[in-house]
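Quick one:
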Amino acid sequence: MTTSQGVPCHLAPLPASVSRLTHAQALGRACVSCGAPLAAGAVERGTIHGAQGVHVTSTEVWSCPAPEPSSRSSAAVANA
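Output:
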């Protein structure tokens, strides 16, 4: 999938703060970039670090998988 700016989710910049995440994004159930529910093939994007007082709120975030290459480009590579 892509973000509202047309950037593929797996390449979009991460939010600067945990406070910008939805609950589902913070739990790793939704894409950190577009908010879509995640299924098999999700891509680990890293950790967003945060704290509220003495409580550490850092969380691992995930995104939609990279789009599959089109069949035309796959066929062109195979024929080359």
